[in-house]
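=== RUN LOG ===
request id: a7f3
mode: sequence -> structure
chains: 1
length: 126
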Amino acid sequence: MLDSWERMSTDEVLERVERKGGDVRARLRLAGALTFSSELLAIDLAIRDWSRRDQTVAERLRRVDNRRMNYLRLLFGTICRDEDEDEGARQVRPVNSRLVLAMPSSATTPSSAPGRPTLLVALVCP
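=== RESULT ===
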């Protein structure tokens, strides 16, 4: 089950984003939309809850989060103008991502989620 979740939430999301292409902001929006889709968000929240009680699941979750964050860092690094903005982005994104992913499913709907990466881009790299 964890293998399927990891493949769907990282490999398949990243492959779809790269295959679709577009500018960095479009790829950020698509990555957010896919990650926060109704299909993946519910599973992601359940895995996060499970990880509180199972160290093996917690390690897998960290691996998935790290892959996601590394991809976002790569994308943000291409649109930030200077090293200070890029460093700020590194500090903001992990906190924001974890807060969004920790929210109850009623607080993050598929219709609102695609705007979150765009908003973060505006905050980090105006």
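=== NOTES ===
The helical segments are 2-20, 24-35, 38-51, 55-79, 83-102, 115-124.
The mean pLDDT is 74.
=== END ===
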